[in-house]
Every structure is written in structure tokens, then in C-alpha cells.
Design brief:
The chain is mainly β. It has helices at about 5-15, 25-45, 60-65, and strands spanning about 55-60, 75-80, 85, 95-100, 105-110, 120, 125-130, 135-140, 145-150, 160-165, 165-170, 175-180, 185-190, 205-210, 210-215, 220-225, 230-235, 250-255, 260-265, 265-270, 280-285, 290-295, 300-305, 305-310, 320-325, 330-335, 340-345, 345-350, 360-365, 375, 380, 385-390. It contains 3 helices and 32 strands. The chain has a 4-stranded antiparallel beta sheet with strand order 1-32-31-30, with no helix packed on it. Strands 2-3-4-5 form a 4-stranded antiparallel beta sheet, with no helix packed on it. Strands 6-7-8-9 form a 4-stranded antiparallel beta sheet, with no helix packed on it. The protein is globular, with a radius of gyration of 21 Å. The termini are far apart.
């Protein structure tokens, strides 16, 4: 059988296996949520504010039925109008698809040939993502046609960043690429050195400040390279540590010449980068940090021990509040009035952005490690089993 024939057979079985991605609204789950809300309200009056889910969508019904252990999905879903785009493969085959969010209709399929490893992002009508075999793709979100395909030294598990016409990709081997977004041609690369040991999955994405791009490393260091030419500008280690894992994680942020960063070893630091002679302005130490987010002058930490912490960027990182969620934090999403934390146990916790007071919590029943998607009706979190849980923000 020809290669095209084999692909057709694979696609046929994939569509049959996933039931054409029929959207399933889990009425039983909603009822269970309501019963749990009533029980929680009896124990804690504040739990009355916990909302019912908007709906639950099962993108991979057979996987949800079998519930294999340890299944993860860090690539998440990209949104374009009424369409959601993601890797809908049951076992990491790399079948990327687009489907109508409301009707469930499949718009197109794209065979990436390998599991998607980076967050799936929509950049100006094209979805960009990296795969396990070291490829990077730019695909039209409307037609599913490939605009271009490129090769990296190793795969990427970090979010792609677009700065003007330069696409910035950081590989797991710590090579930073500047790629022409229109053509896919590599403009430059900067090799920061291969990690010495094991690394944390999904470190911080590169951040652009003026004419430089800053990348976080597994050693806890940060390096800056020229945005146009990839030449080294400076390299700094904000805090020396002998911890086994020191990866820069979460959201790096530059404000008025100060770089704010968080590391897996619990270090939070503000670094003055206005000159190449960088200096650490302030630092704090917390339990191991898995992720972080920045909003309106506040830095939010999501810790492995389940703590969520708010710090004042304008006051030497002074702690404003700390909330115990009870489960290891995997993602943080800061909205207008609340911040939502997900966990490796499937717990979703919403807290007041200003006070940290818990507004509601829920359980998806399985690990949530991908960043959420925003739609016209709310926010959706995708579990490793391919179920998306929607809530109003």
C-alpha cells in the first residue's frame, strides 16, 4: 500500500476511534458538581460561590473511557473564531485537527507526523507548534494547509513567541532560534549550552525587551541575545543555588528595565537589565515554584506544594497574600478580578485577585497541565484525557 493509502487508513481509524470528535456534554458530571457544591456549602458557607460548569467537552471519548495512567497534554488548544485547533491523537501520532466549537464539525486534519510538544498558539491566523521529532510548523487555521515546516536541533516544549516578523523558538537543548515568520527561514541561532542534567518540562518562554530577547535556562541563568542577529548581549545568574532543579519557569516579565523571573528552586528575583552589567535588585525564596503569572504590578507564584502567592512588584517583592489550594499547582491564569490555578490532581481553584480569598473550586478528575483556552462564553481547561472543562470568568 502507498504512503498516501496508509495515511488514509490511519485517518479513517482515527476518526472512527474518536467518534468524529462528537461533543459530549456530561450531564452526570454537572449533577455531581451540583451535589458536591451542596456538600461543600454545608461545610463551608463560602463555597456557595462555586459555580456550575458551563459544560464539559470530550475530544477523545475512547481515551476518557479507558483513563490510561500518566497521560499528559501540554500542547493545549488554540482558538480561532468558533474553531479550536489541537493535537487530537489518542496516542501521540501527531494528528492535528480543527473543529467547530459549537457544532462539533471537523474542519480539517493535518498530519504532523509526531506528537505536538509545544503549546499550540494562534499567531495572526496561523497556528504554530513544535513536535517531538524536532519539527516546527506554521499551519493556516482556516484551511489546515501548511505554510512552512522547519527543523530544530531538538524538540521544543515552550511557547513560541512572535516579535514583529521574527518567530522565537527555544529548544530543549537550549538553542534559541530567530525564524522569519513569513518564510520559515532560520535567520540566526544562539546556543546557550546543553543542559548539564535533567530539566523541568515546559520552562519559561523567551521574552523580548527592546532590541534583545531573553531566554531562561535550566541552570537558573538568563541570557540575552540580539533580536536581529542572535549575538550574545549578556549572561547572568541572579542567585547561585545548589538545588538539583533550578530551571527558569513561569512567565518572565520586563517592566521599566527590570526583569522579573521565577525558578523551580523557589527563587523569585528582580534583575536590573538596563545595562549589560546586570544586577539583582531583590530576591525572595519560596517552596518550589512550578509556574508564575504577572498582572497589574503583581507577581503571582504557583508552587509545587499547592500554595499560590501574590507579590508586589513595586515594593521589593513584598508578599501580599498566600492561599493554600491543597494540590500541586501546574498553571496560573490571571483574569480581571480573579486568578485561577490548576493542578496535577485535576483540582481547579479560583481566587480573588486582590485578596487571595478562595471563590470556588472544582475537580476535573485528571491532571491539567496545558494553558487554558478562552472562548466567547468562558475559560476552558483541557485535561490529559482530552476533556475540556468550561467555567465563567
Amino acid at each position: 500500500m502507498s504512503n498516501e493509502g496508509m495515511k488514509s487508513v490511519r485517518l479513517f481509524f482515527l476518526m472512527a476511534l474518536t467518534g468524529l470528535f462528537t461533543m459530549v456534554t456530561e450531564m452526570a458530571t454537572g449533577m455531581a458538581t451540583g451535589m458536591a457544591t451542596a456538600r461543600a456549602a454545608a461545610d463551608n458557607p463560602e463555597a456557595m460561590s462555586r459555580p456550575f460548569r458551563l459544560r464539559t467537552i470530550s475530544f477523545l471519548p475512547p481515551v476518557n473511557h479507558d483513563k490510561p495512567l500518566g497521560r499528559d497534554n501540554r500542547s493545549g488548544l488554540a482558538v480561532h473564531g468558533d474553531a479550536v485547533i489541537g493535537d487530537f491523537s489518542p496516542s501521540g501520532e501527531g494528528w492535528v485537527g480543527s473543529r467547530n466549537f459549537n457544532s462539533g464539525k471537523v474542519n480539517w486534519w493535518f498530519d504532523a507526523g509526531s506528537e505536538v510538544t509545544s503549546p499550540m498558539v494562534n499567531l495572526g491566523g496561523f497556528v504554530v507548534f513544535g513536535t517531538r521529532n524536532g519539527k516546527i510548523f506554521k499551519v493556516d487555521v482556516t484551511t489546515g494547509k501548511r505554510a512552512w515546516e522547519g527543523s530544530l536541533d531538538s524538540f521544543t516544549d515552550r511557547r513560541p513567541v512572535l516579535a514583529g516578523n521574527i518567530l522565537l523558538i527555544q529548544s530543549t537543548a537550549q538553542v534559541l532560534y530567530g525564524i522569519d515568520y513569513q518564510t520559515g527561514k532560520s535567520l540566526w541561532l544562539f546556543d546557550a549550552g546543553f543542559p548539564e542534567g535533567l530539566t523541568v518540562v515546559g520552562g519559561a518562554a523567551p521574552v523580548v525587551s527592546g532590541d534583545i530577547v531573553i531566554a531562561g535556562l535550566a541552570s537558573g541563568e538568563v541570557v540575552a541575545a540580539g533580536l536581529q542577529n542572535g549575538k550574545l548581549s549578556w549572561r547572568a545568574n541572579p542567585v547561585v543555588s545548589d538545588a538539583r532543579f533550578r530551571d527558569v519557569v513561569g512567565e518572565m516579565h520586563v517592566r521599566e528595565g527590570i526583569l522579573y523571573l521565577t525558578r523551580y528552586d523557589g527563587i523569585v528575583a528582580a534583575v536590573d537589565i538596563r545595562t549589560s552589567d546586570t544586577r539583582t535588585v531583590w530576591q525572595e525564596k519560596y517552596p518550589a515554584i512550578a509556574t508564575s503569572a504577572v498582572r497589574n504590578g503583581r507577581l503571582y507564584l504557583g508552587c509545587v506544594n499547592g500554595d499560590v502567592v501574590s507579590l508586589d512588584q513595586n515594593n521589593q517583592g513584598r508578599q501580599l497574600w498566600r492561599t493554600v489550594t491543597g494540590a500541586p499547582v501546574t498553571t496560573l491564569t490571571a483574569a480581571e478580578t480573579r486568578i485561577v490555578a490548576t493542578s496535577s490532581t485535576g483540582r481547579v481553584t479560583a481566587m480573588d485577585l486582590q485578596s487571595g480569598a478562595t471563590q470556588w473550586h472544582d475537580s476535573t478528575g485528571y491532571s491539567v497541565t496545558a494553558q487554558p483556552m478562552f472562548t466567547h462564553d468562558g475559560i476552558y481547561f483541557l485535561t490529559g484525557l482530552g476533556n475540556a472543562y468550561g467555567y465563567r470568568l
